[in-house]
């Protein structure tokens, strides 16, 4: 089976859903942020602070291409869709799901977070602008799963049924 890529804004539950999906489908899961941190020996926050966002985006593109294109669940950083090259790669090589969630719900999970450089010390409106600007990128070619009013189990079941179709 082609690999499954989970995309979505920060706080949309990609990591949690990816782990459950992994046990349901008996497939390994890889998280692009984790892989980058492990390879570079630095946290995502430190990578942003030391080298900037563009540098981080290049690391994302490289890591994406090293992940097997078959039989893998891939949970991606919320900005993976920003580069067209990454969107194309995921769509060509796998099944892409966008975990769509309303901004207010995401914000309630994000506002106190100190690990995400794009949220740290930012006002709600500034983060919302990024959210709005990315909507079309997330939707491009992907299967949209509406998660706002669904439990993790429900979201996982929906993905499983879409994959098995
Ligand atoms: C980012 C999302 C983060 C991480 C980095 C940038 C973004 O991943 O890759 O902080 O640009 O949306 P999560 O979506 O897992 O928080």
Describe this structure in words.
The chain is α/β, with parallel strands linked by helices. It has a single domain (3-163), classed as 3-Layer(aba) Sandwich (Rossmann fold). The chain contains eight helices and five strands; from the N terminus they run βαβαααβαβααβα. The protein has a five-stranded parallel beta sheet with strand order 2-3-1-4-5, with helices on both faces. The two termini are 12 Å apart. The mean pLDDT is 97. The structure holds shikimate-3-phosphate. Shikimate-3-phosphate is lined by residues 10, 14, 33, 44, 77-79, 116-118.
What's the gist of this structure?
Monomer. With 165 residues, this protein is α/β, with parallel strands linked by helices.
């Amino acid at each position: 089976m082609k690999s499954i890529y989970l995309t979505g804004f920060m706080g949309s539950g990609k990591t949690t859903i990816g782990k459950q999906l992994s046990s349901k489908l008996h497939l390994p899961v890889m998280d692009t942020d984790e892989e980058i941190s492990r390879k570079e020996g630095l946290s995502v926050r430190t990578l942003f602070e030391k080298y900037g966002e563009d540098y981080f985006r290049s690391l994302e593109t490289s890591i994406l291409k090293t992940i097997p294109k078959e039989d893998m669940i891939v949970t991606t950083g919320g900005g993976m869709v920003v580069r067209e090259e990454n969107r194309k790669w995921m769509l060509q090589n796998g099944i892409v799901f966008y975990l769509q969630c309303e901004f207010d719900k995401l914000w309630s999970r994000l506002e106190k977070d100190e690990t995400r450089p794009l949220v740290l010390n930012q006002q709600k409106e500034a983060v919302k602008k990024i959210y709005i600007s990315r909507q079309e990128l997330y939707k491009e070619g992907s299967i949209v799963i509406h998660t706002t009013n669904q439990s993790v189990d429900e979201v996982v079941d929906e993905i499983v049924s879409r994959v098995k179709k």
